[in-house]
Amino acid sequence: MARVDLHLHTTFSDGKLTPAELVNLCYRRGLRVISVSDHDSTEGLPEALEAAEELGEMRIIPGVELSTDIPGAEVHLLGYFLDWSSPGLRDTLRRFREGREDRAERMVERLDALGVHLDFERVKEVSGGGAIGRPHIAQVMVEKGYVRYPRDAFDKYLGRGGEAYVERSKMTPRQAIGLILTYGGVPVMAHPTYSSAKSGREGLKDVEGILLDLKRVGLAGVEVYYGDYTPEQVAGLRETADGLGLIPCGGSDYHASGDPGEPEPGSVGPPAWVVEKLEEVRPQGADPPAPSPGRSCP
Ligand code: AMP
Ligand code: MN
Ligand code: MN
Ligand code: MN
User: Fold this and answer.
1) pLDDT digit string (tens) for 144-197?
2) Binding pocket residue ranges, ligand 1, CB within 6 Å
3) 284 C-alpha to center of ligand 2: Å?
4) Residue 91 CB neighbour total at 10 angstroms
């Protein structure tokens, strides 16, 4: 079991545990350094920091996960150590979350035309006011008995190319990296290759080329120790990361999704030195995250 997990979600995006529940679960599982990295939101961080403060000996690295598009594929970027409480950043992320709501409603309309009748109000309710996403639609489909597990909803309807899939306008990876750097964060590419737990999600075609290109605009790391990646995938990605001088990061990408076989927090993670390295390469002149409430650096 790892002691570091740098990729976790809460109810502030598409995770099912509150930040406090997540932090406590991670602690019980032996983790001592975690990043709460919700989609398009840093709003869960105060609660996570407070829960960690109460536990002691539990370090929270502020994080965020941003979705971007390249031709034919989606690239996710994680931002670590960013100035999460900055009003400018929070405003920008709030706008991203608003775009998600519109798209979710259109997907519910598509489903309706396909004979899958969901109440959009219920989808909003299960999203709990956080960043609404396809997993919330999938959850309501499970609730109503249309599918057994959330991932079945992705396979048939919600995945890229699925019958009810609707695009959302997103930034480019360069724009996301720029945004993360502006707020003093360290940009890291998430899950660069195929993950069998997320069946609808294919790997990128030219991972190395894309990484090299993005390194030139400030990408500092890439996920290597990720979710359900096989030992072969991990070894290959580690070689790529080392070859390009990128920090080999990783984590479970835990959502408490209810899908069978979902990687649990700490089931995978990077070596502890990775955290120091990430901290070392923070953009110069960045202010440390606001100390209140809780603390981020014990
Ligand atoms: P969205 O942010 O609305 O585009 O939804 C993407 C989220 O759906 C990801 O962050 C995962 O949590 C989840 N997801 C993506 N693909 C799958 C899949 N094949 N099975 C289950 N969950 C998935
Ligand atoms: Mn997610
Ligand atoms: Mn992702
Ligand atoms: Mn994620």
Assistant:
1) 999 999 999 999 999 988 999 999 989 999 999 999 999 999 999 999 988 777
2) 14, 39, 67, 133-135, 150-151, 154, 159, 198-201, 255, 259
3) 30
4) 9
Contact (CB, 8 A) for 252 and 7: yes
| Closest ligand to residue 195's CA | 1
Instruction: Name the token pair of 138.
Output: 């999938």
pTM for this one? 0.94
Which pairing describes strands 73-80 and 59-70: parallel, antiparallel, or unpaired?
antiparallel
Query: With contact defined as beta carbons under 8 Å apart, do 82 and 64 qualify?
Result: yes
Q: SS3 of 149, please?
A: coil
Element (H, E) at 182: helix 173-182
Calpha distance 84→116 (Å, rounded): 38
pLDDT, tens digit (0-9, with 9 covering 90-100), for 129-139: 999 999 999 99
Residue of the CA atom closest to atom 23 of ligand 1: 198
- Give yes or no for a cis peptide into 265 (omega within 30° of 0): no
Options 3.90.1150.10, 1.10.8.80, 3.20.20.140, 3.60.15.10; CATH for 1-298 is 3.20.20.140
> For residue 264, how far is its CA from the centre of ligand 4 (angstroms)?
13
- In DSSP terms, which residues pair with 37 in a beta bridge? 63
